[in-house]
Design goal:
303 residues; mainly beta; Immunoglobulin-like; Jelly Rolls; seven-stranded antiparallel beta sheet; 22 strands; 38% strand; globular
């Protein structure tokens, strides 16, 4: 009888932990008590993330987060901290992130000069822009990144405020997610993700290169090279404009998203893949006549 009661109690406790709606809210600041814009609250094990707003505030109401989960608080240039979900229930939570400072003990001093290798696009002008809807992800292989022993130091994107041909309006300063994938040695497509943290960023300017420093993540450059991914967030983070139909291109929706610029003929092959909420598998973007690719690049510190 005691065993049955214990089992029922276990089921009740499990149901309480997993089925209730998790609610928390608060603000993320730095050591000077300044709010951190577009810091990220995430549950990597479940693929969930919640960017802060322009005041550094976050709010989560979710049935997918349980009290047994570990929640990550992260931002570029700061040390990630991890907190158990059961310690975050409630409102007015205050999270302080410390800046990431490279310790001298981590630096090896030698007579060799530091070699920074640039991979990906070398252009400063574009031919076109991509068209995407919230949730779409575009990944481009960094040509020249394979077989280099070193660390991925930075990535960059050339962003525009709208579509070149259709004249659809956008917002080059709107947020997006940055992801890094190793190249699958068999399929050549994006494979394993190399950074667990959710990196959300936004460009301070339009029509220019926006560079993201990844040095604090100390990501080893994989043997077969890597993809840099431009990932649009969900509809919750963008403003939808009036429905729009442009006959030549067949677009039916218009969102204020950042537009990724593209080139033709810079590379002799198609290097890009994409996926969206309607198809989760990576699909290669093929344009044999123009070799349409994107203005995405990266740097590697060779060892």
């Amino acid at each position: 009888m005691k065993q049955i009661l214990s089992f029922l109690a276990f089921l009740f406790l499990s149901g309480t932990l997993f089925c209730q709606t998790f609610k928390t809210s608060g603000i993320i600041t730095d050591g000077s008590k300044q709010p951190i814009v577009f810091a990220t609250v995430s549950v990597p094990s479940k693929g969930l993330f919640f960017p802060t707003n322009l005041k550094g505030e976050f709010s989560i109401t979710s049935n997918e987060v349980s009290l047994l989960d570990t929640i990550f608080f992260s931002c570029i240039g700061f040390k990630t901290i991890k907190v158990e979900a059961n310690k975050l229930v409630g409102s007015n939570k205050s999270i302080v992130l410390k800046q990431h400072i490279l310790e001298l003990a981590e630096v090896t001093v030698s007579n060799k000069k530091t070699v920074i290798i640039k991979v990906g696009s070398k252009l400063n002008s574009y031919f076109a822009t991509s068209h995407g809807l919230p949730g779409k992800e575009t990944a481009m292989f960094m040509q020249g990144s394979a077989n280099i022993n070193g660390y991925i130091m930075s990535v960059a994107f050339f962003l525009r405020e709208g579509n070149v041909f259709s004249k659809m309006k956008g917002d080059a300063t709107a947020p997006f997610r940055v992801r890094i994938f190793e190249r699958n040695k068999i399929t050549g497509a994006p494979g394993k993700e190399l950074i667990n943290d959710v990196i959300i960023t936004s460009s301070p300017k339009k029509n220019h290169w926006h560079t993201i420093d990844l040095s604090n993540y100390e990501v080893n450059n994989p043997e077969y090279g890597f993809f840099v991914c431009f990932s649009l967030l969900s509809q919750d983070y963008y403003t939808r404009l009036n429905d729009f139909y442009y006959k030549k291109f067949g677009y039916t929706e218009q969102w204020q998203i950042p537009y990724l610029t593209a080139s033709q003929f810079e590379f002799k092959e198609d290097l890009s893949y994409s996926r969206s909420p309607t198809y989760n598998d990576w699909r290669k973007e093929i344009d044999r006549s123009h070799h349409f690719n994107y203005l995405i690049r990266a740097t590697i510190q060779a060892l």
